[in-house]
């Protein structure tokens, strides 16, 4: 959710069209907090590499949520930066992953993207008194209730699709070298529900395009996620699929790149946050499985909201100010 | 929750008595956001038509919650408008529906009404930073924990009463004409836990007494609820009992009559909100059934809080101001 | 959480060390809202009487959470009063109770204490807009997610320990004299997960050391808890172990000693709050058991937050101001 000024300002009409198109594209990168058009293009390409359904639903989500924001007259810059779009991208992908590829899923993906835009406005308003931002919380709320409700509706529910099943894995915590290096990359792709290591590799390359610091903190998050999950004794098979690390990657990007100033104490705090997000993944998986939903990026959101809200009372940890960000960009 | 000025101001003592009595009565109509005494009387009559237990417990809830507010010195106008009462009405009815008609239920209904008044103060205070109001949230919280806790207590729990069981229905989504027209009316009565179509018809008549616009948006909500539930493929039998539509009626009344200005965009937003509340009904039913509670009016509250909180960031959607309301009343 | 001014102010370095040591000790008493060093020492002794594991983990929690706060440069007085410590004390004890005494539990106790300090900062910041304080909420959140997640990790989970099992009790609500008098004391010790009556007796003596009023409201809370649980028909065996009363004791201490002015109406409100916390214990036990967690002091926190947030709209109930507290101390 870094800000990146629009350099050219043509007439209002074409500006509006260009802003909407840019917003739809940047929404893909904003899932990882990046407004870079190149990063977005690479991540989108990676989704098409995984499968045409993933790529198509990402596009549907991006277009519908951006148009919804535009129609409801959301402030121009917010739309053009993709900040009303990224939850819709995830929401539409989640529909095809958790409901399967059926005609009704297209209708639900459109509904999910539309609702994600509304709930993005909701959360960003509700979090103002706390000095927090929505992150991917809107997507988590919308996906939670839609996945929860879907089996009640005959015209929507066609049985659990293969993509939604976490395969019954051996519980063994003995991690092989393959688990480790595949997990390192799939930690990055699992943010978009993809457990394929080379999709993660492409996405990581996309993150490095946004800046070496962005790529570096994605790497740090992935490594911290692997180490924490290994140390606690999580099932090796899940570590290899990135199930235990994708929240650590997001948390590391959030604190390391977007939220905190680059000090030694803050880097330590970022590592603690990424480890906490990894541990929380198990707790929330148990919680959501109880009533038939999924973990999504809740561990990242809850960890980041909780630790960010602690900062004002912890003088050792310092927030990045707009001035810092400008100096950094210069 | 519309405001309606008290026209006569006699001496403070009789004013206080009259205010308390008016508050207790208006609390019935305020469940549907109406301060009209006539609407309240008609709805109360409809509850007695359903059964004397429903009527009696509504009266107990109204009296106890209003007296609690009075004893705790809540501001006079708030009490006289029934704004500390409507949750207690629902809370007391919920006790007889979910615990059955036993001597202990009277004690619990009094506790529920008292607690509803306290939690109404709580929520109205907590929601101030967000610019939201409590709606029927206090009732939902109190009923949630009381229904959840009751089976743990020997002197309170006498087995699940017949009234608390949603009959095992055929799952078929094929809606008959009878399902449709009965559902249309029971969507209105189900707000008060009543699935009898002619009770809903009487209540709808009561809403039209408060103004043609009030009745119209109740109709709109009921129709949107029916259509959404049918389109998604909800079980026809539940549609016929109003299970899928009562939250849509409340949501439509909230956005259509109380919260938004009468513009085309806002009417569209109201329809989307009513549809969202219908879909959310399934999600929350699954969630609450997992640990043994019930849906109550959570879908209405959550939908209305979420979409109302989004409005400040969506310039196309415009809130009704006090000036509008005065112009409307004049 | 009563304030008690530091009387001597030596040089900053020794002041800092002394403040940290005092904070670690006072954190034990602050679980019951008491900054008294004597109260803390007596409660800590009581924990060692129960078992050396309980005593040791309380010390680990106190030291780790206080040092965490110090390292993160939390404001000196807050640390020295034990206000960043009390959740860590409970968090570390909870680990040994719910995970058993294993080498890995020491690592988790340190993590729990560290996280409790962070989440104490979080909640105290998030609750500012509502005029509320964190109470033992941070401990409840941290213990909730750690107990929930632990069974997913091979290196952490060694089966449910004996200490975590509520024995299958006869459901009979017929209370014997032994249940009553043992419950009266274990209501006090159960705050620290201890169901042994003489440990509760020692702790109650410690509370009287902090002032007769403190001891008195602990007694009131315990009696209200017993009466409410008996009247509702809770299982007698659980009443005897303090399971139904410890939240009432904390709630009574909070409203009776710390939060409200000493008026008749406020005393009545305190009794209602203690009774509500007792009833809520059953609801939350059912809720948390559904997905495999525990009740902790959630009933106290939820009741106290809810009823304290109601006070601004209830003029009959009056908050203790700083001026009152000073007059009281003089």
TrEMBL record, chains A, B, C:
Any Pfam family the entry gives: UT
Keywords: Cell membrane, Membrane, Transmembrane, Transmembrane helix
Family the entry assigns: Belongs to the urea transporter family.
Primary localisation category: membrane
Protein name per the record: Urea transporter
InterPro entries: Ammonium/urea_transptr, Urea_transporter
Protein's membrane topology: Multi-pass membrane protein
Localization per record: Cell membrane
Keyword Cell membrane assigned: yes
Transmembrane domains' residue ranges: 55-73, 80-100, 106-127, 134-153, 191-209, 216-237, 243-260, 267-288, 294-314
Gene3D superfamilies documented for this protein: Ammonium transporter AmtB like domains
